[in-house]
Amino acid sequence: MSFTPEQLVAAHKSNVETLFGLTQKAFEGMEKLVELNMQVARTSLNEMAETTVAALSVKDAQELVSLQASLLQPTAEKAAAYSRHVYDIVAGTGAEVTKATEAQMADSQKKVLALVDNAVKNAPAGTENAVALVKSAITAANNAYESAHKAAKQAAEVAEANFQAVTTTAVKATQSAAKGKRAA
Questions:
Q1: Which residues of the chain have pLDDT under 70?
Q2: In terms of Cα–Cα distance, which of 131, 129, 135 is closest to 113?
Q3: pLDDT at residue 175 in the model
Q4: Measured in whole angstroms, how far is the alpha carbon of residue 111 from the centre of its chain?
């Protein structure tokens, strides 16, 4: 099992292309996060100015309590929306990286199996047991990778469901608290 110089160059080229592709995906994700944070900062600054003007025009304590209650619910909803946007960006970038990684792994598995098959064809007589052992080890490694990948995917799905549930619960709790303050 030896590689020709052309095969080595092609493998290195493929790996470099994959690396730059993954780096590009990471930068795209970071750009989206920076854009989101700039938008949130700009909006927050405008809202802070509006809130300050409203607070300075309050005439009594009841009006101040009412203003505070009216600010509580939208703030919690905005925080939940921000968290969802961040999660979506991170999950999207992660999905793209996973997709590229899976494609690279599938290609690598095909190449290894092709090398093993080539080695089997050229193997001397009496090495059938060693060849079977190598094939078995490769199959076991592929199965272990698939199992770990499925478990990671399931864990990510559970984490996403939990994140959505916590966000929904937090927003509902804030809405209830805001309604309670308004009624008081």
A1: 1-3, 170-171, 174-175, 177-184
A2: 135
A3: 65
A4: 29
Which pLDDT tens digit goes with each residue over 30-76?
A: 999 999 999 999 999 999 999 899 888 989 988 888 888 788 778 87
Count Cβ neighbours within 10 Å for each residue of 126-149 and write b for 16 or more, e otherwise: eeeeeeeebeeeeeeeeeeeeeee
Q: Which domain holds residue 153?
A: 5-183
Domain count, the chain: 1
Q: Supply 57's token pair.
A: 């025009």
Q: Which residues contact 32 (CB under 8 A, 6 or more apart)?
A: 89, 93
Question: What is each CA distance from 170 to 12, 88, 180, in whole angstroms?
Answer: 49, 18, 15
DSSP result, 28-53: HHHHHHHHHHHHHHHHHHHHHHHHHH
